[in-house]
Design brief:
5-stranded mixed β-sheet, 5 strands, 2 domains, alpha+beta, Glutaredoxin, 7 helices, single chain
Length: 164
């Protein structure tokens, strides 16, 4: 992100309450993630330690410090979803997308397919426990998910079955 664009974003957040989260949220919305270089520039411009910005970016699950795929699939791993089969959903998605679970360097679970079409991540709770297990694709919530209905859901986002 260039400095002029960053300055425009910063200028929208003069009030101290929520300023950092608002600015970082806009950066994420525009870039798809928060580049380290942008955090470094933001640290200097706002006179906020880089460690504080990095702490916010790693604490909140909606921030990403690395690029994500065209479509982001988030599986809820809250208690209700976990009990009702979220682990099976996650494993089925890994198999369908040809990826393997791993935590990223910022400690978050996030993995992107080689073709950069999908990023798979987990969250602790969506607040939709009555529809467990739940997953979200690009902000669209899918309740009562099963491994069997995943192909239909992902097909809406351009996924195609590949036979090995």
């Amino acid at each position: 992100m260039d400095e002029k664009t960053l300055d425009i974003i910063i200028s929208r957040y003069e009030a101290p309450a929520g300023r950092l989260l608002g600015i970082m949220g806009e950066i994420q919305n525009q870039e798809g993630y928060i580049p380290r270089e942008t955090l470094e520039i933001l640290s200097v411009k706002l006179e906020v330690p880089l460690s504080q910005l990095y702490g916010l970016a790693t604490f909140y699950s909606f921030f990403s410090l690395k690029p994500v795929g065209d479509h982001v699939i988030t599986v809820c791993m809250g208690t209700a979803c976990h009990v009702k089969g979220a682990v099976k959903i996650l494993k089925a998605l890994e198999e369908m997308l040809g990826i393997k679970s791993e935590a990223s360097e910022d400690g978050k679970f996030s993995i992107t397919t080689e073709d950069k079409k999908f990023t798979l991540e987990i969250a602790r709770c969506f607040g939709a426990c009555s529809m467990a297990p739940v997953l979200r694709v690009d902000g669209n919530l899918y309740g009562y998910a099963t491994p069997e209905n995943l192909p239909g859901i992902l097909a809406e986002y351009g996924w195609e079955r590949h036979e090995n």
